Amino acid sequence: MNTIILYSLILLFLPLAAFAINILVGKRLPRKGDWVSLSAILISFSFALSMFAYMLFIRYDPDFSVEWRWLWIDLGDFVIELGILVDNLTIMMLLVVTLVSSLIHIYSISYMKDDPRYNRYFAYLSLFSFSMLIIVLSNNLFGLYIGWELVGISSYLLIGFWFEKDSASDAGKKAFITNRVGDFGFFIGVLLFFTAVGSFNYGDIIAGVDAGAMSDGLFTAAGIALFMGAVGKSAQVPLHIWLPDAMEGPTPVSALIHAATMVAAGVYMVGRIYPLFSPGALLFIAYVGAITAFVTATIAVVRKDIKRVLAYSTVSQLGFMILALGVGGYVSGLWHLTTHAFFKALLFLGAGSVIHAAHTNDMFRMGGFKKKMPVTFWTFLIATLAISGVPGFSGFFSKDAILASALEFSFAHPGHIMLFILPLIAAGLTAFYMFRALFLTFYGEPQDKEIYSHIHESPGSMTIPMVILATITILITFDQWRGFEYLPLVGEYAGWFQHLIHEPAAIFTGAAAMAESVVGHGASEETAHTIAMWLSIFVAGVGILLAYLFYLKKSLSAEKVSKSLSSIYTLLRNKYYFDEFYGATVIRGVLGLSKASAKFDDTVIDGAVNGTATITIWLSKASRWFDDHIVDGAVNGTATVTTFFGTRLRRLQTGTVENYVSFLVVGILVFFIFQAIF
Amino acid sequence: MQNHLLSALTFVPVLGMFAILFIPRDKSYVIKVVAAVTTGIQLWLAVQMYIAFDTTTSAMQFVEHYAWIPAFNIEYFMGIDGLSAPMVLLTALLSFICIFASWNIEKAVKGYFALFLLLDAGMMGVFVSIDFFLFYIFWEVVLLPMYFLIGIWGGPRREYASIKFFLYTLFGSVLILLAMLALYFYNDPHTFNMLTLMETTYDYNFQKWVFLALFIGFAIKVPIFPFHTWLPDAHVEAPTAVSVILAGVLLKMGIYGILRINFPVLPDATLWFAVPLGVLGVINIIYGALCALAQTDLKKLVAYSSISHMGFCLLGMAALTSAGMNGAVLQMFNHGTISAMLFLLVGVIYDRAHIRDVNGFGGLAVRMPIYGGMVALAFFAGLGLPGFSGFISEALTLIGGFGAEHSSSTFRWLTGLAVMGIVLNAAYFLWAYQKIFLGKLNEKWAGLSEINGRELFTIVPLAIITIILGFYPMPILGMMSETMNGIIEMVKSGAITALQ
Question: Is a pLDDT exceeding 60 seen at residue A511?
Fold first, then answer.
């Protein structure tokens, strides 16, 4: 077996083993077994790191790819193969997942200290890591679906970890069920592709569809159905509602699952099976992404809870990635996925550090934390600069690339200019709400003296992961800095990400034509990049400036603005009433239907059964009556009649010969009279 | 070569029953041990069968073939193939486990265990009989002990439930009897031998009528909508172990009958009825799930979930594809283990709290973490989570349903609807779990004791099987695939001959 595959299998199954150990005996192990999960993920990480090093320093080959297939189910006419596909994209994602996961494990040791279910927490983290790695490594849709569902359940367990709180257990349930709604589409998509091609394997499906196994319409429909899964998992509008609620989970969980990895799974999936999306499907994807990026950014602006700001920000950034993939910006979307994973995890860990100290999520009760929590502040600042798209930081490069792709697409298809406008506004909003959060939390006067008096910087096991993430946030796009290519030794790695990750060949003439029309404008690509860059710097600047004026200098009053725009403000505060809408329609509908079904079952169907019984009983009573009175009556009647005549006739039996002789004479007389008359 | 493994499997419980009848009534411990040993031997025999089973053929194995009532050509004919072998295994396993789940029975111990063993023998007999007459006798044998087990050891409405169960199934039996006699007299020479019955080509209209009669008879057992309302009542009233047997084995007898007799004997009618069967399957899935969502009695909820889960079997069968048929039988096996776990776990809480109302609890996960964990595991298995066996069988039936070659577009829509059932399944299981285990601890139940060793002993083996088959289902799938593909072949080729 190939070494790469062997490494992949080991790094995949170690976390599963850790889960099994911790869930069964974790409580009795020293330190409640946290080291089991931690060492499992660290070993997995070291394997991923060595694969990354191999990819970067030894192969440096854009077309590197290894596949391993395993016959899992064999029914003669029908087989399911599972397997592993490792290429540059896989390795990149493996590194992100295991690295962020390792850091979160370390961070959690302090954060979750004293929790009564400490061992279960680490068991669940391991289960999550395992599930996520299945998604990353799978070479087929069936395996992907398995990982997909397992990620869902680990997320359920972790969101609802503090299940004594009703809000937490509600949120876990909501997350799982909302995801399943998306999975409904996903599974239909899987079925459509499988039925057409006869295999779940990515390569086989791509080859099969390329050979004309599906009609154009079906191909587009199947792609959109698959994408429904991504809408659920990556929390895109209209299935985004679960992610903000998922913030009820412990903050490290939010950082790992609901910022860096699980929610990225949808984006990764789209990237992984990119050729399976027809131009029509891609356009659909682009619009979902653009709308999500914009809508959720507006919601983030009015949140008071620091974690909710980050949650909506995550949804919005995922929208950017989805948009990028939709408009053909394959590399930029996946690049943003990578950079975002680190700075968003960092933001959450920073928020976790603050919450850990202040015991509140409400930013309006914070303020001035900068002095007392310097490490948290500086790392949070770096991440904020990155996500806001300040030049030089990682988020700037990747987001800029997305906007450029969108603009290029709009050049080619002017009718779809909104695909550029919406994310551009969203980028400005991002800078605004992130700096708003930064200012409210760390700057200004402490809003709550009581809280301020007891806050403190978090311990090393929490700050060290933050520092590491901050370092990565800066360094990951170091190669994009001007002059990097002239550096000795490392210079040749300028643009390494773009070198290693490249768009797979489209299988569809239509898709190819569209890609052509985008890429074909060689000149417009340059123009688009330049325009997009300056516009994005401009909107980020405006966003930061406004945040400064509103929340630091206070020369503008947020209250006044919200009053003057009260209808919009209310709409945003209520998150566009998505939850209320679903509550009134889908949930009420299903519950109503379920009540109706149960009632139908009790009254109509069971009623029919019991009715049959009643009728049978009634019939049997009737026949008993009939039996008693008519049939038996007839029998008894016969007897009565017989008795009646018997007793009467008995009197004739007198035993006297004279009587008999007289009867005889009378009889003969009657006989002859009859004879004479008739 | 004839050995007597199947007779032994069937009649060992009968021997155990007679042994129990000779034990004095007050020696209840001895009675339980005898029952445990009897079912233990049966399980051991079933494992021997599993080891010796040849997975490369669809022919009958372990055949025992003797003349019995020659005047009517009735034979003592037993044998198993890939369809019945998993059911034999399941029956032996659940019977053994249920003896331990019945350990708390105090009322009329002797009668309970004697009847239980008789029930066990009847179920086993159904799965190993190849002679229709023999099959029918065992089918009826099952009925009586079940009636008494619910009617005597059941809950408050036990009499209503047991009579409903008895009359309903008896009604079905009558239809099966009529169909059996019709088939018997159609053939010349008259025969009850199922293998011979399969070789005959029947008149199309005759097939339809016989199919319907058999189908209704079997559908009542499955149960298939709208013949299902005896099930929730029977489950609610039945003692835990009897519920386990009811859901785990008895329901399977219905589908087994359809697959064993309807499909291969009446191929044209099978194709004729494929779409209605698929529709009924989807109704079972969706309607069962919707009804489950409305229940507050936990046992009733699980009962309706059974109806929903059996729907997947019907959809898979109706599609007549390899994935669908194998998935259906795998689903039978998996539902056997998973629903057994569910009912055992409901029994655990009912024994302690004496209520089953979902709203009456709250926060139990804090008080009973192991129990909470086991229920979570069983619920996750029930809602079709990957890593548990139910996921694979449900996925197979859906894949099979979607790929149906006859009426393919109808089946695509049906399967699409069925996939929606998966969302609903998640909804009611998670809802029930939240109500019982999550949130603040309801102080009323602060004194509840954790699940004990005996109870864990009944549940853990099932959990392990569920997980192993969830990762690698071939140990069961491998047994059946030859046979199931053979049945598909029989239906398709049989139907073609008839149409010519």
Answer: no
Whether residues A173 and B482 touch (CB distance < 8 A) is answered with no
DSSP A637-661: HHHHHHHHHHHHHHTT----HHHHH
| Residue B284, domain member (yes or no) | no
Instruction: State the smallest CA–CA distance between residue B70 and chain A in angstroms.
Output: 39
The reply to whether B428 and B301 lie within a common domain is: yes
Residues B466 and B430 in one domain: yes
B41 and B10 within one domain: yes
> Smallest Cβ distance to A191: which of B402, B439, B473?
B402
Domain that holds residue B62: 1-272
| Radius of gyration (C-alpha) of chain B in whole angstroms | 22
pLDDT tens string A56-88: 888 888 888 899 999 999 998 899 999 999 999
Does B485 sit within 8 Å of A184, measured CB to CB?
no
User: Which of B243, B272, B301 is a domain's end point?
Assistant: B272
Residue whose tokens read 């566009």: A576
Of B322, B424, B431, the CB nearest to A78: B322
Nearest to A422 by CA among A517, A319, A335: A319
Instruction: Encode pLDDT of B279-291 as tens digits.
Output: 999 999 999 999 9
- A73 vs B385: CB contact, 8 Å cut-off? no
Q: What integer pLDDT is reported at residue A94 of this predicted model? A: 94
B221 and B314 share one domain = no
B389 and B452 together in one domain: yes
Q: List the single residue in A with minimal CA-CA distance to B427.
A: A177
Together in a domain, B306 and B230: no
> What predicted TM-score, i.e. pTM, was given to this entire model?
0.91
Tokens 């408009």, residue located: A327
Contact B328, B310 (CB under 8 A): no
Are B266 and B365 found together in one domain? no
Q: Which of B213, B241, B272 is the last residue of a domain?
A: B272
Give a yes or no: residue B278 inside a domain.
Answer: no
How far is B66 from chain A, CA to nearest CA, in Å?
34
A 586-605 residues with CB < 8 A to B: 590-591, 593-595, 597-598, 601, 605
When scoring B229, B440, B456 by the number of chain A Cβ atoms within 10 A, the one with the most, hence best to mutate, is B229
- The answer to whether residues B97 and B19 belong to one domain is yes
CA atoms within 13 A on the CB side of A79: 11
Cβ atoms of residues B209 and B268 within 8 Å: no
Contact B415 A598 (CB under 8 A): no
B185 part of a folded domain: yes
Closest to A77 (Cβ–Cβ): which among B322, B438, B472? B322
Cα(A275)–Cα(A278) distance, integer angstroms: 7
Mind telling me how many Å the CA of B401 is from chain A's nearest CA? 10
Whether residue B8 lies inside any domain: the answer is yes
> What pLDDT, in 10s, does the model give residues A603-633?
898 888 888 888 888 988 888 888 888 888 8
Number of domains observed in the structure of chain B: 2
pLDDT band at B457; cut points 50, 70, 90: very high
Note whether B356 and B408 are within 8 A (CB): no
Distance CA A332, CA A230 (A): 18
- Specify the pLDDT at position A526: 79
